[in-house]
Amino acid sequence: LAAVRDVGPAGHYLGHPHTLENFQRAFFMPELFDNNSIEQWQAEGSKDTITRGLEYAKRMLNEYQEPKLDEAKNDELLDYIARRERDIPTMDALNEDA
Asked: Which domain of life is it from (predicted)?
């Protein structure tokens, strides 16, 4: 409310310190959209959203690191899978005539 009091009627918040400190957290800024001027966009290669999206996806795939899994948890999961494979009939058994 301090910003509202500071700005007053008919004022604007664009230059207010509160706005400058908080605008990046207060508004969602999508990574794939370009808010630069057309001159800056052209200087950076005139990439459309599809190109930027593909570059982003490739970067994410290239930077992916498999999460560490506790060895005991991994053993539990493998044991669970083995038990379920024994307990659930295979597709061949389901397709046999009774």
From this structure: Bacteria
